[in-house]
Design goal:
mainly alpha; two-stranded antiparallel sheet; 8 helices
């Protein structure tokens, strides 16, 4: 009997993946139905999305905002957020449904600790939509800046995918005997970690800008609102969102860090074929469990925090 056993079963992991699909698709339907019931005439103008730069003027008596100038290209902010959240949940449900439909392929990827291409492509799209939604909540209303944020987040996830490819390539070269567990493998491990570390930059830089923007808009009156004291620029709950969103976003990157560290801690003693298979499966399934857990917690929380701005603000 092998001394190293498998920590999880694939079947239980597969079931929880189905639960995650239902959670995301259910959120998609619930938000759509609730949004359809909103009376658009009762929605206060709170800063729409514009292509051109815009300055606001306000009415203290009516507690409303109006365009001080007339920008070209304007989209309703609440509807804009609604579509971002809906695309986020629909992408999450659709990509995870791919694993449900292609069960044996999913089993092979997880149990052999292979490249998670489907997951990283999903994150490249869904996480980027969520990052844009966060910027809208923080009253960043420039469409051009939204495009920049989307591209930065997309690049971050693609760096994660590159790191995953190098990780799997290193393991295959070691198993084939092409390289030894020595300076050669350590060099590839360093490249993997480097690709992962570089991936944080496209997210941290725009988020830093958002935090600075939040600080000034929450502590100082906008020049356009200097004579409108009754209009709040940033509600108190946004403070909670700013920092909680950051940690929820980073949690997915931490999962890959733990996965990379696990591969560096492979047992130094010789293993039987079954033990080696169990070690590899444990690394792959542990990472997948963490991703599914975050899908059921962090992603749902992120989506509903933004949806609250659409449905209840």
């Amino acid at each position: 009997m092998p001394t190293i056993q498998r920590k999880y079963t694939f079947e239980s992991l597969y079931v929880w993946n189905i639960v995650a699909v239902l959670g995301h698709f259910g959120s998609f339907l619930a938000i759509a139905m609730q949004f359809a019931r909103i009376n658009r005439e009762d929605v206060m103008l709170d800063g729409d999305i514009t292509v051109d730069s815009v300055c606001w003027s306000g009415s203290a008596a009516e507690n409303t905002l109006q365009f001080h100038n007339e920008p070209q290209g304007v989209w309703d902010r609440r509807t804009y957020l609604f579509y971002l959240v809906e695309v986020f949940f629909l992408l999450s449900a659709s990509f995870q449904s791919y694993h449900v439909v292609n069960k044996e392929h999913y089993r092979a990827v997880v149990e052999n600790n292979l490249v998670q291409s489907v997951r990283y492509w999903e994150y490249s799209l869904s996480a980027s939509c969520m990052f844009v939604a966060i910027s809208v909540v923080l009253f960043v209303n420039s469409f051009y800046f939204h495009v920049l944020i989307f591209v930065c987040s997309f690049c971050c996830m693609q760096f994660g995918l590159v790191a995953d490819h190098i990780r799997v390539l290193t393991t295959k070269l070691i198993k084939s005997g092409a390289i030894m567990v020595s300076s050669d493998s350590e060099y590839l491990f360093h490249i993997t970690n480097y690709a992962h570390a570089i991936g944080w930059i496209p997210v941290l830089l725009p988020y830093s800008v958002l935090v600075v923007h939040y600080y000034f808009t929450s502590t100082l009156d906008w020049q356009c609102l200097a004579n409108t004291p009754n209009v709040e620029t940033v509600p108190w709950f946004v403070t909670v969102i700013v920092f909680s969103q950051f940690f929820l976003f980073c949690s997915f990157g931490f999962v890959q860090i733990l996965q990379l560290r696990s591969e560096h801690k492979l047992p130094s003693r010789s293993l039987t074929r079954e033990e080696a298979s169990n070690v590899i499966a444990n690394i792959g399934m542990t990472a997948e469990w963490r991703f599914i857990f975050l899908s059921l917690t962090a992603k749902l929380l992120l989506g509903w925090l933004i949806a609250a701005q659409v449905l209840f603000a």
